[in-house]
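Input (SPOR domain-containing protein):
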Amino acid sequence: MFGKTQRGVSERPTKPKQPLIPKWLGMLVVILIVLSFGVALMLWKPWAPVQPRNEITSEHYQEDTNKDYRFYDLLPQQQVTPIPEQAVPENKNQQQPVIVEAPSQTQTDNVDVGINAERTAPAQPEYILQVRSYDDPDAADARRAEIILNGLSADVVQSTEGGKTWYRVISGPYESQNAAVIAQQTLQHSGIDSIVVKR
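Output:
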C-alpha cells in the first residue's frame, strides 16, 4: 500500500531545477574578471625592463656631469720613470725602539736567617708603555679609552709631583721587550705616541 501509486492517479511531472545564478549574470562576472586581469597587467607591465632605484634620471643631474674624458687619451702617452737601483736600499734598517729603565727601588740584601730561609730569584723585568701624563683626569681617561679601543690594556695612575697631581696613562705590563714594542707599534699606527719603560 505504501509503496504503490493508486490507480488513476498520475505522477506529477517534474520541473527542471533552475540554476541559482542566471546565465547572463555568470557571463557578466566572467567578463569583469577577465577585464580586471587585463587592466592589472597593463598597469604592472611585467614585460617592461626594470629600472634601478638609485639611478637618477633628472636632466639637471646629467648636465652637471663631467663629459671631459681626455685622461683616457692622455694616460697611455704618460711615461713612467723607474727608480734607479742605486737609490733603493738593499735592506731596511729598522730603528731600534728606545727603552727607558725605571729608577730602581732600594734593594735589600737577602740575609739567610736560618736553615729554611728561601732565596728569592731575581724578578723578571717587565715592560710598560708610558703614553702621556695629564693634569686633567678626564683627558687621561679619554686617552685610556683610545688605547683600549686598539685592543690593549690601559690604566691611569695618579701621582703627585711638586705639589701638583698628575694622571699618567700607561699600558701593560708586558712580559717581554718584543711584546712591548709590538704594542707600541700598534699605538703608533693609531697616532698615539708612547715610550717603553723597563721595570
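The domain at 125-196 is CATH 3.30.70.1070 (Alpha-Beta Plaits).
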